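Blinded run. Sample ID left blank on purpose so nobody reads anything into the name before looking at the predicted structure. Input follows.
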Amino acid sequence: MKPLRAVALACAALAVLAVMALVVVWGISEREMQRPREAPLVALRPATAPDLAEGGRMARIIGCLEGCHGRNGEGGHGEIEGIVRHVAPTLSQVLPDYTDDELVRLVRYGVKRDGKSALGMISYTFWALGDQDLANVMAFLRRLPPAPAMERTLELSWRGRWSLVTGEWKVSSEQVEQDRPQWGNLPQPTPVERGRYLASVTCSECHGLDFHGNALEKAPTLAVIGAYSEEQFRHLIRTAEGLGGRTLDPNMRWVADAPFADAEIVAIYRFLRQYHGFAP
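Blinded prediction complete.
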């Protein structure tokens, strides 16, 4: 009986340790999500008055519409498989609560009105947005017709909480690299520089700020651009169809609806080829 009792005690001890570990992971991850963040309120300085038409176009290119917040801002579902599922809010319901400066802080720094970090918002991608483009987008979104509020949900898995604890995944404000240039506020005299900006505010969401892929998003390195001609790349963007007729991952099919100009597609192509060391 003594060996059986020893085994039982060992199992009980392991169970207690497991519960304690879960409590610690839950507590640290919860603290990471709830603690206040420091981020400045910085007013935009656009060169001209907001252009609503251009704001609507850019809102679709960067994914405010036809993306995270649904097709028309009504709210939408987002997911990183095995990490988190969430519902992005109905834009017409939340934007009135934010001043322009607060909205800029949320978009660029990932910090909400209450000072806490957003979770799942791609502020690391939006950091590069230029003042004019951001002013255009904000003005357009503020004029969206009212829509019924979509119920907000957040389902964070234990793997997601563990990822927050280990740093494998981070809250939105911690993903922003503030030492990176805001490419949209810098001159873009050549197609390559224009392409750098557009790639930074679109491709980096899934493929990483260095365009070398993202393991959590299961997105490959964009060095695959080496296999594409300019015409093949244009076909990919316009149809979401890769080489050999391959249908892209569902998370990538938004590109077929994005209102890129032909010159913008060429600019992204040329930038990615140069960035990854391929001949022009």
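Unblinding after everyone has recorded impressions. Residues 42-181 form one domain.
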